[in-house]
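Running low. Got one?
___
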Amino acid sequence: MDALATLFGPMVGAPRQDDRLLRLHTPLGPDVLVAETLDGVESLDASGYRLALTALSVDAHLDLAELLGQPVLLELLTAESMSARRPFHGHVTAFERLGSNGGLARYRLTVDPWLCFLRQRLDSYVFQDMSVVEIVESVFADYADQGRLVPAWRWDLKDPAVYRKRSLTTQYEETDFAFIERLLAEEGIHCHFEHSGDATGETLGAHTLVLADHNDAFADIGPIRFHRADVTEREDSIQHWRSTRRWQTTRLARASWDYRSLDLRPAAAEGAQHGDVITEDVDIAGPYAWPDRETGERYARQHLEALQVASATIDGEGRWRRLRPGARFELTQHDHYRDSAEATFHCLRVHHRARNNLGARILDEVERALGRADLASPPLPVPLSGLSPIHRDAGGAVDRELADGDADAGFYLNRFDALPAAVPYRPRTVDGDGLRLHPKPRVHGTQTAIVVTDGAPLHTDRDHRIKVQFPWQRGADASHRLDHPGGENNAPGSGAAWTWVRVAGPWAGDNWGSVLLPRAGQEVLVAFLEGDIDRPVVIGALYNGRGQDDAAHNRIAGGSAGATGNAPAWFDGNGHWSVFTGFKTQQLAASGHGSGGYQQLRLDDTPGQGRVQAGTTQHDSTLTLGHLKGGQDNVRGRERGFGAELATHAGGAVRAGAGLLLTTEQGRSQLAATDAELQLARTEQQLQSLAESARNQAAGLPDEAAELPAGVALKTSLDTIAVTQSGSAPGNGIGGGAGEVPGWSAPILVASGAAGLTVATPADQVWVSGTQTVLGADTDFIWTSQGETVINVAGGIGLYTHGAKPPAGKPNAETGIALHAAQGNLSVRAHADLARAAALTSVTIASTRADVSIAAPSKHLLATAAGAYLKLEGGNIELGAPGAIKFKASKKELTAAKSSHSKAPALPRSDWSRLNSLRFALEGSDELAEAMGWVGKPFKVLDEQGDVLAGGVVGKDGRLPRVTSNRAESICLVVGEPGWNLIEVQGGGQEQSSETPQESELDEIDPNDPYAAQLADNDDALPTDLVRTLIEADNT
């Protein structure tokens, strides 16, 4: 071994190394390691390059860990001059001792760019509203100042503006390297490294990653000859050149559905056709894969360009040491290329093989001591993504040929791939079998997340999307309380944690559907469209934590990331099984703890005690159907009854626009009121019969109609109830359920009690009707009052009894009419006309304790019987008889003239003769009439018969006179010239019958007619806007 040291010593100790082919510089010091062989690959994309070096050293005990991660510089001597060296700069990622013998050792170094360190960090991270440039910059920045790692990169983009901000880009369980590689390939950005050497510097040089999207980014390295290789040749050249053309798809079509714009966004690209066969690649790119059609077209064009790279790739071999990927060169002296443009190519990949020129004697001695150096390298970078599988197989065969070749053929040889300069280069995203080369991680199944907001209990947008934060996000408020190693806060526990996420619901229609939005702190279940991590959809909410055994709420109030402990309100406990189903809301302010007011729909499926309850804590308002029980939340309280209960501590109203039935009758149809209809029919027949009897006995009122208005009202009610409606809509195409049911023709209210009807109040009770009020009873009608009973009538009162024999068992067997005043006076008066008392038999006027006075102070008093009469008139008494007049008394006395006067009761008259009045007025100031153009226009106020109640010209103040009527009726105001169409506006007076001509006319009016206006609320005021429209509308 002394001989080996003697031979190797002068070599390692020589001060000059300028004539070496390979020169290696490491932080261990000058010539501690001497390069022996090089086996390396440089490529566009992938990780850029990897170099496998074997090196010799006289120190067999080097610390293998000392060099890991350290920068090294390998210089390759070129043909230009002895000083022109091509640098390879990188970091040692593997260092191994291959063998040693005596004082001589062989080591192998694997050198990679700084980019390979991105393979060491597996991360999940959310990028929002960032372009691809901003995302890459953010990831690369995490590796700055990491030991002796000095990342360097630069962008060479033709138009950076085309790279729009991406709303959401998620790195999910990917290494930083795989994520960046995938992202760049999606955007059509390729990359390569540029090297610089500084043997005296701390980092020994640098290697810069160049990220580009156009062919002009390739550096021009000059021409190269296509020439033989020989020891006599002073210049490098290319010896083998294999041009190949392969069939590739020439037409590509993609499409993506965008749920926001409801748009299927197609994108297509087409290249030059070759031959008569046209092949097309058609696929769906996934949901909202691009923000607009322009971006989609760019993606499609880039994808097609990536496919075309494989159809035009050229592979060759040579000894040109300056050849590198990302460079442009011109091939000269080749018979196939006559034009310089056709002979210009871009280098895509180079595989370098080299042995250092240590000298034959030294190499023999090294081989004898350590064996021959193996050129077979460890795994090199992934083959160029732009090459087809055929190219990769061919390349592998040549690589084996180089590995097994004779070193005497030369100290350097390379194998390379090139592309005509006219063909755009794009990273390929799929291989020859259609599989993605850089697939996005797929999410299998669902995940859970926590709903986050910006402090409010609910954070949503117009389209009911929410924000969530996943457990795998790292940051200040992460679920696992882990910070991100890069220092960024990617889990803020706020609305910044994620982009908007849609929420699935049972229904989602145009202005209809379900609304169940998760709130802050809730745990939700998230699915991913087509397994795409960037396309999440919330599909449900989850209970979590541990609930109390027999009480509401959770044992755990909350957790990290703003998560709230959510226990179900209804559960197996409080003495019963889990019999409750339904849903319960919570006031927003109390969403986090669930102790506030709520609304709920609760279904109780307890056997034999089924219950449906809809309620709110607002005014304790509930509607309960079925078995009525008390209790709150999960507690089933005391019994409350059976059937239905509607209760509230506030006001209540029941409104039905087409009619309302309150009944205890049994019925199969909604508005079936058979008992009420029969009762009304009997009452109507009884009323007509008694009215006819009264007329026959001259007991009716003067000018009384042949058919009483009360009878008309009863008949109208009967007709209204008897109307039916069809249960099917014509032309809807849906069968089943046809038929007719009661469907009233007017919005009346009917109350019917099968076993009775009781209306009672300890306070006042008011009955008012605008027209007729009919009170009827088949047997007795009893009206009692503890105080006074007052009946005031503006017209006349008719009291008539038929005098029929009462039913058996009645305690009072009298018939007729009895007026009794147990206390006080009885007064019967006719203030404006005659008063008659007549009977078929006797009429008795008696006073049991005082006098009976009959007086006619201003006229005469006449008593007649069978022709005899007694007449008192003036101061005279006239007595006459067709027969004898007898005076019988025990004593008869005739004296002088005397007189006696009686005071007649006062019979005052009232001027009241009208009940209703109305005055049309504009709501506003007096100047409003002038502003609207009313002043000076003629007006008329008409009653229902068209008679003019008032008229004239509208004055400056706009005030119109008040009109009166002795009955409730519709009044019409006409403003303007005659000849206008009169459109009736219903006011607060008598409601029109559904059969009136006016309403049928309104039904035929064009709804676009500005005069067709009708108030629906029966108000007696017209809106100013309506009046303005009527006045200003063109009536021509």
Q: What stands out?
A: The radius of gyration is 54 Å. Residues 11-16, 376-409, 986-1005, 1009-1020 have pLDDT under 50 and may be disordered.
